[in-house]
Write a structure and sequence with these properties.
By secondary structure, this protein is of the alpha/beta class. Helix content is about 35%, strand content about 20%. The mean pLDDT is about 85.
Length: about 325
């Protein structure tokens, strides 16, 4: 939705009216107008969870109902989860840029920032990984609340027989770098809390950008309760954008004692033994060769591929 307000959820602590890099156990919800300065917390208005939900539902209720043959034009309610070494202002700056260059420009829908307490320091890799893991419970809380809202809306529509009351938004997630680890652990907890639901897709499209997770995460020979299996169950489709040029992820792999390669640098370990709704895509040729770890967001051609993934274009036609 062009010129939609800014929305943010965070589990960061606060010092003197600004976010810090400490984690708190409760989520805080914010909105800001397009005329505000979203890089300063004073430019945001804090809402209750109910007020935040109401504001988002009011916007998605304005989304058009489209016939099945126009499925790729359906608008999105999307969550952006930033990565490692991101201060709150870094996260807000990247969120604003993605909202402007992708969501507003393409009239894709509404984008929400989830800002977890990354330390914003290259020396903070291991503490960031701990913060990412410890943020899983709050991330799961977001996913469970979303599940409850979507299922309630679908039940209302089913009971009334009024198709116009069905949820009008596709739900998607864009995760960057270690933000993918936040999503991985959050979806695992959400699946466990929801008893691994089989009858509803929680997330239509999960776009994993420069994912700092194991590249064998989605192997089908893993137990049903494994992280990748639960993620594949909750998501309609998962697309991982990778490039072998990502030296940040090369360094990340070197810090792992178990030596697994990173999904965002090497792609899937074995695409033939991966869940059918998971695929990878080598984004290298579409990147501007600068700041490679986040170049997908800075390269218009790469953003166009990301948009096609979110819209649900078949994986074999992303470059058409």
């Amino acid at each position: 939705m062009a010129n939609a307000p800014y929305f943010m959820v965070s589990n960061r602590g606060r010092t003197k009216g600004e976010f810090n890099d400490k984690r708190v156990d409760t989520l805080a919800y914010f909105t800001a107008t397009t005329q505000a300065t979203p890089k300063k917390l004073a430019g945001w208005t804090e809402l209750t969870a109910a007020e935040f939900e109401k504001a988002l539902m009011a916007l998605t209720a304005e989304f058009p109902m489209l016939p099945d043959d126009q499925n790729t034009r359906q608008k999105h309610l999307s969550l952006f989860v930033h990565g490692y070494n991101s201060s709150w202002t870094d996260a807000a700056t990247r969120y604003e840029q993605i909202k402007r260059d992708l969501f507003d420009k393409s009239d894709l829908g509404v984008l929400v920032l989830f800002s977890w307490p990354s330390n914003g320091s290259p020396a903070g890799y291991l503490p960031d990984r701990e913060d990412a893991r410890d943020s899983a419970a709050q991330t799961a809380e977001l996913f469970v609340r979303l599940y409850d809202v979507v299922t309630a809306q679908q039940r209302i529509a089913a009971r009334s027989g009024d198709a116009a009351k069905f949820c009008r938004a596709k739900v998607s997630v864009i995760a960057h770098s270690m933000g993918n680890y936040v999503v991985q652990k959050g979806l695992k907890i959400a699946a466990e809390r929801l008893n691994s639901p089989q009858l509803i897709t929680l997330i239509h499209q999960l776009a994993m950008v420069a994912a700092d997770v194991d590249n064998d995460l989605f192997q089908k020979d893993r137990p049903e309760e494994a992280d990748g299996s639960l993620m594949a169950n909750l998501c309609y489709r998962i697309g991982a954008l990778y490039t072998g040029l990502d030296e940040v992820l090369g360094a990340s792999a070197g810090l792992k004692h178990f030596g697994k390669r990173r999904l965002g640098r090497s792609g899937l370990a074995d695409a033939n033994s991966t869940w059918d709704n998971v695929f990878d895509f080598d984004i290298t040729e579409f990147l501007v060769k600068k700041n490679i770890h986040s170049a997908v967001f800075d390269s218009p051609k790469a953003l166009a591929i990301l948009e096609k993934i979110l819209r649900g274009i078949d994986r074999h036609h992303l470059t058409d």
